[in-house]
Amino acid sequence: MGGPGAIRTNQKLAYFTAVITIIIWSSAFAGTRYALGYYNPMSLMLLRFIVASSTLIVVGAVRRIRLPRRRDVPGFVVAGFVGLFVYMVFFNAGSVTVVSGVGSFIIASAPVFSTILSRIFLKEIIRPVSWVGVLISFCGLVVVMLSQVTEFSFNIGVLLMLGSAIATSGHNIFQRNFLRTYSALESTTYTVIVATVFMLVFLPGAIREFPGAPLDVNLVVIYLGVFPAALGYLSWGFALSKADKTTHVTVFLYLVPFIASLIAYLWLGETFTLMSFLGGIVIISGMVLSNTPGKSKP
Predict the structure, then answer these.
(1) Which residue has the higher pLDDT, 123 or 220?
(2) How distant, in Å, are the alpha carbons of 24, 69, 231, 286 from that of 215?
(3) What is the pLDDT of residue 67?
(4) How far apart are CA 263 and CA 289, in angstroms?
(5) By the 8 A CB rule, do 65 and 234 touch?
(6) Around 135, how many Cα atoms within 13 Å sit in the side-chain half-sphere?
(7) Which long-range contacts (CB under 8 A, 24 or more apart) does 147-154 make?
(8) Per-domain residue ranges for the chain?
(9) CA 20-24-28 angle, 5° bins
(10) Which residues have C-beta within 8 Å of that of residue 251, sequence separation ≥ 6?
(11) Which residues touch 57 (CB under 8 Å, ≥6 apart)?
(12) Strand-pair partners of 153
């Protein structure tokens, strides 16, 4: 067992890896919006994860990772289905009508659900001030959602994005549990492969659309598969494995909207309303409050 110094080193590694992951994931919003100009959401999802699975299988073979234990297979199936398949279905479908900035603020609410799920399933201690922060973030989420009501018509993509935020929170909980037994590479590889298998139902559409997509779009798809999907989830799993608590890592998700919005503005010229921005700031403020250092009961 390591002493306090080792614990601090692990925590610094968790923070550093989380920041790198957040930058990579932030680029996925604009990249997805760009590729959706040529692919439907489900085809794009499948192609992205075929690339991700292939990347992880090659890395796993080189590293000679262990096969999952039989009793853990059902857990990986559930984690891959809920945490990745469901997340990507909602995320890609929502990205069709929700601009990157708004979508990223909604996804930034994931720590709210991670906090709740960590308390329920991992029995992690949540301080009273953290619950206040969760409530504030929920209020900001409502503001962001209301900002998408135009002429009495609600953008359904917002609800899809909200569903993806909840799903990715579930993925954090599953990952945290698996990382007690498996390495980040092993856990990520098996959940991504499971998700890809579920996505194969969309293979016919992907085959039809692939020849008509320009080279630059397919390069973006490859990037989305290798970095935000494969390496992103791998580095996120590593960060979770080194963190003292799940919430110590998931708090970095509040950086995503700002980085994603900047990338989308520079790449796609996207902007969003002041109301959306203010609601996003409230979400982030709640998350900052939730993770303000303080004492908690053991």
Answers:
(1) 220
(2) 21, 41, 22, 42
(3) 92
(4) 26
(5) no
(6) 5
(7) 147/102, 147/272, 147/273, 147/275, 147/276, 147/279, 148/98, 148/102, 148/276
(8) 12-290
(9) 160
(10) 111, 287, 288, 290, 291
(11) 189, 193
(12) 150
Instruction: Work out the widest C-alpha separation in the chain, in whole angstroms.
Output: 60
Indicate the pTM of the whole model.
0.77
Copy the structure tokens of residue 21.
């992951």
Neighbours of 294 (CB within 10 A): 9
* Block residue for tokens 């856990």: 187
CA dist 53 and 294 (Å) reads 40
Residue 41 tokens read as 């959401």
Rounded Cα distance, 290 and 128, in Å: 9
SS3 state of residue 291: coil
At 283 the three-state DSSP class reads helix
Inter-CA distances, 284 with 15, 94, 142, Å = 18, 21, 13
What number of other Cβ atoms are within 10 A of residue 135's Cβ?
13
What would the mean pLDDT of 124-151 be, rounded to a whole number?
76
CB atoms within 10 A of CB 152: 5
**3 state SS of 203:** helix
Report the half-sphere exposure of 262 (CA within 13 A, side-chain side).
Answer: 6
pLDDT tens digit string along 94-122? Answer: 998 888 888 888 887 777 777 777 777 66
